[in-house]
Write a structure and sequence with these properties.
This protein has about 180 residues and is of the alpha+beta class. It has a single domain, classed as Cathepsin B, Chain A, CATH 3.90.70. It has 5 helices and 6 strands; from the N terminus they run H-H-H-E-H-E-E-E-E-H-E.
């Protein structure tokens, strides 16, 4: 089942890390700018961020979070189990192109690159993966687009968090 996609009206906002968290923690997808702002305010409270954080950065870097912030938010929402598979400190950082070839079937991940973060869902066949970000859902067929100049196919992975769900229910696909 394909998860709910980021609405077109929110794609200009740079909240890719929080969007990956929405998919991983099975939070309701914000459907408007006001609902996104409410979610960002909640995130700021959870992470003890200053009130003015992200206000000047709007919209390009609105909601930009680090891997540490991601782990803190996953711990807060308690809707899934998670395990850090790779961090920036690990040697021999893989590129997305190489990593996606060695993923396991029936797994989910949050992947942080230098300038982007996204949610990856691998289906029963490991070559059937989906990347969810503000641009929509990307599959193996779209990988040539990610390889172009400015794409993130060749970027080195900063961190990988494997997400597992204790209850095997299908994720919520209803918008908020």
């Amino acid at each position: 089942m394909v998860r709910a996609q980021c609405p077109t009206s929110l794609r200009k906002f740079g909240f890719c890390g929080i969007l990956a968290l929405i998919y991983a923690a099975r939070l309701p997808m914000p459907t408007s700018v006001s609902k996104l702002k409410m979610l960002l305010e909640d995130v700021k409270k959870i992470l003890y961020m200053k009130k003015g954080k992200w206000n000047k950065a709007s919209p390009k870097h609105t909601g930009a979070i680090s891997i540490t912030d991601t782990l803190c938010l996953l711990h807060h929402y308690k809707s899934c189990d998670f395990k850090v598979l790779r961090t920036k400190a690990d040697e021999k950082a893989l590129t997305l192109r190489k990593w996606v070839k060695c993923v396991e079937a029936n797994t989910c991940y949050i992947v942080h690159l230098k300038t982007h973060a996204f949610f990856v869902e691998v289906l029963a066949v490991k070559s059937k993966w989906r990347i969810y970000d503000q641009g929509g859902v990307h599959t193996r067929k779209d990988f040539h687009l990610m390889e172009k100049v400015g794409g993130y196919g060749g970027q080195q992975i900063r961190a990988i968090v494997q997400v597992t769900y204790t209850n095997q229910k299908e994720p919520s696909t209803r918008p908020a």
